[in-house]
Design a protein that fits this description.
Helices cover 73% and strands 0% of the residues. The chain is an all-alpha fold.
Length: 71
């Protein structure tokens, strides 16, 4: 698994979360609603990217606090 070695490092998890956040914010600007992708598919993909970003950022904050407390 990709996160096996990095799952205990909150900084690397936060970097991945920020990358997903940047991708979600830039997604509508660079992906046009043409061809097979309708506006609903573009919104759905952006929602998935935002969800991953929020989840990873929350996980890194929780893990960082847990490591600081020594737990």
């Amino acid at each position: 698994m990709i996160l096996k070695n990095r799952a205990r490092d909150p900084k690397s998890i936060m970097m991945m979360g920020m990358a997903f956040l940047a991708a979600a914010n830039l997604w509508p600007r660079y992906v046009s609603v043409t061809g097979g992708l309708g506006p609903d598919a573009v919104d759905g993909a952006r929602g998935v990217l935002m969800g991953l970003a929020i989840g990873l950022l929350c996980w890194s904050a929780w893990l960082g606090g847990r490591l600081r407390r020594g737990g």
